[in-house]
Amino acid sequence: MDFLSIKFFIFFFSAICIFYLSPLRYRISVVFPLLNLFFILTYVNNLSQLLPLVVFLGAGFIGIRLVETFANRVAFITSLSVILVIFVYLKKYAFVSFLPFISRSYLSVGLSYILFRMVQMLIDVYQKSIQERVSLVSFSNFCCNFLTFVSGPIQRYQDYKLQESSLGQKALTEREVFDSFSRMIHGLFKVVILSTLCMGYYKWFFSFMQDSTVNESSLVLCRKFILASFFCSLYLYFNFSGYMDIVISFGKILGFELPENFNRPFESRSFLEFWSRWHITLSEWFKFYLFNPFVLFLTDKWPNRKAVPYYGVLAYFFVFFIMGAWHGSSWVFLIYGLFLGAGMSINKLFDVLMRKYYSVQYKKIIEHGLSGLLGTALTFSYWSMGTSCCWLDLKDLVKLMIKFKIQGFLMSFLLGIFLWAGALWLVRGFKYIFGRGITSLNGNFYFSRTWLSFELFIVIGFWFYGFGGIPDFVYKAF
Amino acid sequence: MKNILRQTGIIIAFFSFWYLLFLLLSYHLYPISKVIDNSRVGHSNHVRGDVLKGNIYLYDAPNILLGSWLSKHNTNRIIILGASNSVKMRAAIMQKILPDFSVNHATVRGSNVTQLRNVVDVFRMSSQGSLKRTIFIINLFCGTFINNKSSMGHVVWKNKNLTYFEAEGLRYGLYKLSNNTLEPTLDPHFMPLAVHLLRPFLLGEIILYDIKLYYDNFWLSLHPSKGSPQDSQGEEMKRASLVEWKNAYGDIREYMEAPEMDSFISLCKEIEQSGGSVVVVELPTPSWMHGINEYYKKYISKRQLYINKIETIPRVRYIDLATLLPPIPDADFVDSVHPTQEEAEVWEKAISQYVLSQRRFLGF
């Protein structure tokens, strides 16, 4: 079921009614699993298409049971390996293209997110962070929660379980309900309008870039490339964060507190900070279950105190390479992984060296407003260039590399810093002049409702206008 | 639950305020008569060059798709069909010469035979299958016989085997595709009501279109070489035009094939069988194109075949406008096919006079 369809909104409001009108004791054990099942069934034409998902979930549940029962390394590694093998097989990754894949179509939506949840449960059960026995109902509700099924956010089982037990015990206040509706409509605005416009512009610049003749000046070409990259980044942000706004607000109305995935990422002053603000739950997952164990492993293996910060540099490269590669099944995403890994490790190395040799000056530089602006622009420019892996296939990327060479990319990067710094300066100026007024108007009952309903009106109008051109949720593919 | 229902109610109430406000504005700024005769199409005088190609259907098609349900069915009707070189014709001019007809302007840019059929089907549906008391003026030129396959990206929408016109029909949810034909999803009696209910959102589209138009005009004023009438006779424009034809029409071997012509002839027959009449008008093109455009040459070599067949159908007339009018200088065209506003009005007057002279033959 498409989140941007009338069907989904009918489903959601029916779900609220059914959920709140049913007795408290049946909400989690009966109503919620049925709602999840109904939601998932809308993605398939016949039940056999669900079979791979059932096998995947079954393997995960059996694995968790095994680890709970035997609580040893063999059970853990065996279970983890089986889950990963099934996942790689079902996702049809390019590096295992020699395998005989299932030729019939099957449901692959949400597989990556289910993997994250199952692996997290498996590790936490193994490490005794999850003490109580995981029931089948809790497992299926957690893994197949219709709110987070398609693209997250990636919640921890422990957090979910806490909410499950207290679900429906506290009524939502009017303010909370209004805030949720407000966020939902803002989310729709982001997805339906802003992401559509940004997608249109990035494709526009991209087509210009493809049409570029050899004789075109390199500055013009760089400008096209960086603008296409910027709009692609903005498109990804509005699309994904808008989706999160919708999902989190829906969850809130049903009584779930889903974790935040974005915290104004384009205000990040460094690439390190960026990943604590962008796709937060994914970054946290990788931090908990890959980065920390990897650093611990290195520290255990080579216990040298002076080397520990440099282990972080190495770990960042490793983790972000994996994270980048996870984003797609084609080879170009390995380049994306290298790009992310290089960005994080260089940033970390710079941080380590500056703290070591210029500690006082570094602190002063960091706190200076201009360096903050520059850092933010540099981060955005770098990341946007990385996202070109999401809209160029390997062949086009190689062509671009040959055409641009190092100096071309460098020129685009510098141009990007200049452009984004200018844009930020304008936004900050606008906020400085109008920010207080807007905040006080938002506090007014009539103004806030009038504005929100106008936003909804515009969203519906644009929905008709952009028929067929409104992008689907970009992370649905994962 | 109480709070959820209460807040939902408040937002719906505020939403209704905006909805009603825009509904009233739509009636004030864009009355029903304008929807039906599509007279705002005069804005498209500025269509030149490549800059205005995006979203053009958003503007024309809704007027026809939705407005047709509001048109008068119980009077004598004239429906003007054609492609972009007909959009400058104005319903009001023909209306003056033929006052006892209700004139509907239903030209859609980029129309080929498939899209002409789409428009005819919509008018047929909106008058319960009958086309009695209706004259279709079908403006043709060599571009009309472009097939869907070779015109990918021009007529066919997002490679989904839909014409842009069909895509427009689907996006409001008022139509569905059944056997490759648009069918209304609602009972025909409710269609006019649904069209009225959609008006606030259509108004938004028109405002957006106007904003885009002003932007494009501004852009053109900054880059006069991209589309000024002065260079319409220039060698560069001629070369660019031929390249554009090649891009849109594809392989010359696939152009003007028998199925397209047969489809056009059967369209005329269907209209006649549904009780309607047809005037097929061959629109003029600039003389410079005749010698160098291979598509035009092929068209001329095959044209007589379909004219012979068409002339055998009752209540169907064919005229070559170029023979009715004095020689048209190339300066009266803005590019390889589109006339200037003044020239389009001359054409329309000539067509109107022709219809007037042929009333009896056409069954009126």
Give the topology.
The complex is a heterodimer of chains A (478) and B (364).
Chain A: H1 6-21, H2 24-41, H3 51-70, H4 73-91, H5 111-126, H6 136-143, H7 157-166, H8 174-211, H9 218-254, H10 271-274, H11 280-301, H12 308-326, H13 332-357, H14 359-367, H15 369-391, H16 394-442, H17 445-465
Helix pairs in contact in A: 1-2, 2-6, 3-4, 3-5, 4-5, 8-9, 8-17, 9-15, 9-16, 11-12, 12-13, 13-14, 13-15, 15-16
Chain B: H1 2-29, H2 32-37, H3 56-67, E1 76-81, H4 91-97, E2 101-105, H5 113-126, E3 134-140, E4 156-157, E5 162-163, H6 164-171, E6 175-178, E7 181-184, H7 191-222, H8 235-249, H9 258-273, E8 277-282, H10 287-292, H11 294-310, E9 316-320, H12 321-324, H13 341-357, H14 359-362
Parallel strand pairs in B: 1-2, 1-3, 3-8, 8-9
Antiparallel strand pairs in B: 4-5, 6-7
Helix pairs in contact in B: 1-7, 3-6, 3-7, 5-9
Which key features would you list for this structure?
heterodimer; A: about 475 residues; mainly alpha; 3 domains; B: five-stranded parallel β-sheet; two-stranded antiparallel sheet; 14 helices; about 50% helix; globular
Major sheet summary line of chain B: 5 strands, parallel
Overall pLDDT of chain A: 87
Shape of chain B: globular
End-to-end CA span of chain B: 65 Å
Q: How would you characterize this protein structure?
A:
The complex is a heterodimer of chains A (478) and B (364). With 478 residues, chain A is mainly alpha-helical. Chain A has 3 domains: 6-166, no CATH class; 174-258 and 443-465, no CATH class; 266-440, no CATH class. Chain A has helices at 6-21, 24-41, 51-70, 73-91, 111-126, 136-143, 157-166, 174-211, 218-254, 271-274, 280-301, 308-326, 332-357, 359-367, 369-391, 394-442, 445-465. In chain A, helix 15 packs across helix 16. Chain A is globular, with a radius of gyration of 24 Å. In chain A, 37% of the residues are buried. The mean pLDDT of chain A is 87. In chain B, helix 1 (2-29) packs across helix 7. In chain B, the strands form 3 sheets. In chain B, strands 2-1-3-8-9 form a 5-stranded parallel β-sheet. A two-stranded antiparallel ribbon of chain B has the order 4-5. In chain B, strands 6-7 form a two-stranded antiparallel sheet. Chain B is built from 14 helices and 9 strands. Chain B is of the alpha/beta class and 364 residues long. Chain B has a single domain, classed as 3-Layer(aba) Sandwich (Rossmann fold), CATH 3.40.50.1110. Chain B is 51% helix and 11% strand. Chain A binds chain B through residues 16-17, 20-21, 171-174, 176-178, 181, 253, 449-450, 452-454, 456-458, 460-462, 464-465, 467-468, and chain B through 1, 3-4, 6-8, 10-11, 14-15, 17-19, 22, 58, 157-158, 160, 167, 170-172, 198, 200-201, 204-205, 208.
